[in-house]
Amino acid sequence: MSTNLTSFIKSIRDIMRNDAGINGDAQRIEQIVWMLFLKVYDAKEEDWEMDDDDYVSIIPEKYRWSNWAHDDKSGNAMTGDELLDFVNNGLFPELKKLEVSKNTPIKQSIVKTTFEDANNYMKDGVLLRQVINVIDSLDFGDYDESHAFGEIYETILKELQSAGSSGEFYTPRAVTDFMAKMINPQIGEKMADFACGTGGFLTSWIKELEPKIKTTEDRDAFDNSIYGIEKKPFPYMLCITNMLLHGIDVPKIEHGNSLLHDVLDYSDDDKFDVILMNPPYGGNEKEDVKNHFPSELASSETADLFMSVIMYRLKKNGRAAVILPDGFLFGTDNAKVAIKKKLLNEFNLHTVIRMPHSVFAPYTSITTNILFFDNTDSTEETWFYRLDMPEGYKNFSKTKPMKLEHFKPAIDWWNNREEINEDGFDKSKKFTKKEIEDNGYNIDLCGYPHEEEEILPPKELIQQYQEKRKSLNDEIDRILEQITDILGIDLEEDK
Questions:
Q1: How confident is the model at residue 1 (pLDDT cuts 50, 70, 90)?
Q2: Is the omega angle on the peptide bond into residue 362 within 30 degrees of 0, that is, cis?
Q3: Distance from CA of residue 154 to its chain's centroid?
Q4: What b/e string do you get for 417-432 counting C-beta neighbours within 10 Å, with b at 16 or more?
Q5: Which contacts (CB < 8 Å, 24+ apart) does range 32-37 have?
Q6: 163/23 Cα distance (integer angstroms)
Q7: For the purposes of burial, counting CB atoms within 10 Å of the CB of 245, is it exposed (0-12), middle (13-18) or buried (19 or more)?
Q8: Mean pLDDT of the chain
C-alpha cells in the first residue's frame, strides 16, 4: 500500500487545522468526502469513456476534477482566492443545478444528488489547494489502491464517530460480514438496506456475492443486485463513493427517508429477496411519520417502524437479517407486541443471535441482537444463541474491535444446532411460538447472566432504566386492561 494511503487522513487533518473555516471534525470529514467523490467519479468517467465512444459527462468540462484539480507542477494550477472563487461561485452552484430528469442515467444523476446538500467550508485557498493535491495523489485507476480505499473509508467513518456526530451510520464490518455470510447471497437476488448509511451492508453483500459470478449475465445481475436509501446527505455521499469504488457503476442508492411512504401501498415491485439492516434506534418519530403505518404498528420508536417497513417489503420466500436493541426483545408496549405478533404469525423468525456487549464500542454500550427471519410460513420455533465475549476480551474497543473470527462459535453452531446450558444459564435454546406467546412476546431469552457487572456510562444507564420502566408500565397497563375487561370494571367511573 502506498504511503499516500497510509498517511492520507493525518496529512489532511494537519492542513485543515490551520483553516479558519473548518469548525470541528465533522466539517473536516465532510470536506474530504465531496472531494473524494469528485476524484473517484473522475476515475470512473475515464473508464466509461473508454467503454463508450459516445459517453458525455453530466459535469461541464471545466468542472471535471482532472480539468481543474490536478496540479501538473507547471505552476498553472489554481490556488488562493482564484481557487476559492472557482469552487464557491462556480463548481458548487453548477453541480447543484445540474438538469436531471427521470430519463437521466443513475450514474449521472448521482452527481446532482450528492452535491445538493454538500458544502465547501474552507476559507483559505492555499490550504484548499494543498488538500486537493493530497486527494489527487490517490490513484483510483490502480485496482489495488482503489480497493485500499476501504481502509481510508473505515478510517473516515471512525473519525466521524469520534467527532460525536452520527455514529448511527456505521455498523462494524465484522457484523455486516457475518450477516451477509449467513444470508448466503445468490446471483439474481436483489438486496436492500432502507437506512444504508455509508453502505456497510451493501459492501458485505457485494464481497459475499462477487466470487459467485461466472458469466456476463451473472455480472449484469450482480451490478443490479443492491438497493439502498439514506436520508442524511453526508453518509449518502459516502455510500455512493463507496459503491463506485466497489465496481457498482450504477448504484441504486436513493437520497430520502424510507419511513415517509405508506407501507400498505407497496407492490411486489417494491419488494426484495433479501433485506440486511441495522435500523437507527433510539429516535422518536412524529405523528406525520407514524401516519404511514397501520395504527396498531404505529410506534414512535424509529427501529420499530423500520421493522414494519422490512416486513412489508420482503418478498415471498425472501430472507432478512436485522440488528435490533434489547429494548425490542423485552418491550411489551402495544406497538412492539403487535410488530412481534406480525413477525411470528406471518414470517418465520428462525434465529436470534444475542451479541456481546460493547460490539459498537466506544460509540454506544447498547446491547444488540441479530434477528434472522424469512417470508415463508409462520414461525413454529425460534432458536436463540448467545455469542459470548471471546476469550481474553473484557470489552471491545476502538483499538480492539470485534472481528469476523469472533463469530466462529455462532457459525459452527448455525449448521449443527443444539441446546447448550452453561452454569445453569441457557446459552442456546429453542422456543416454540406458543411459549413466546405465553411469555407476552418478551423474547429476551438466552441473555447474558452477568450483564449486571457491566458499568455503563451514566446517560446510557439512565436511558436503559427508562426503557425498562416504560416496558414494565406498558406491561402492567396491558394486564390491568385485560383484568378490567374480564370483570367489566370501568376504572374511570370510580374516580
A1: very low
A2: yes
A3: 13
A4: eeeeeeeeebbbbbbe
A5: 32/131, 32/135, 32/156, 33/156, 33/234, 33/237, 33/238, 33/241, 34/114, 34/115, 34/118, 34/119, 34/120, 34/237, 35/69, 35/131, 35/132, 35/135, 36/135, 36/241, 37/114, 37/237, 37/240, 37/241
A6: 11
A7: buried
A8: 86
**Residue in the structure block whose three cell numbers are 412476546:** 441
Q: Determine what percent of the chain is predicted with pLDDT higher than 90.
A: 56
Q: Indicate the domain borders of the chain.
A: 3-142, 166-449, 456-495
Supply the pTM of this predicted model: 0.82
Class of domain 166-449: alpha beta
Q: Which residue has the higher pLDDT, 148 or 164?
A: 148
DSSP structure string for 419-469: -EEETTEEEEEEEEHHHHHHTTT----S--TTGGG----HHHHHHHHHHHH
Q: What angle, rounded to 10 degrees, do the helices at 200-209 and 173-183 form?
A: 50
End-to-end CA distance of the chain: 75
Distance CA 392, CA 371 (A): 27
Residue-wise burial string across 16-47, b where 16 or more C-beta atoms lie within 10 A, e elsewhere: beebebbeebbbbbbbbbbbbbbbbbbbbbee
DSSP state of 62: G
Amino acid in the structure at residue 470 = K
What the block records as the C-alpha cell of 375 is 417470508
Place of cell 424469512: 374
Q: Is 377 exposed, middle or buried (0-12, 13-18, 19+ CB in 10 A)?
A: exposed
Burial class (CB in 10 A: 0-12, 13-18, 19+), 482: exposed
pLDDT tens profile 236-256: 888 888 888 888 888 999 999
Instruction: Give the whole-angstrom CA distance, residue 311 versus residue 385.
Output: 23
Measured distance CA(8)–CA(12) in Å, rounded? 6
Q: What are the C-alpha distances in Å from 331 to residues 304, 327, 406?
A: 10, 5, 28
CA distance 161 to 143: 28
Q: Output the nine-digit C-alpha cell for 154.
A: 473505515
Q: What is the CATH number of domain 3-142?
A: 1.20.1260.30
**Residue range 127-139: average pLDDT?**
90
Range 211-239 average pLDDT: 91
* H or E element that contains 351: strand 348-354
**Assigned C-alpha cell, 89:** 461561485
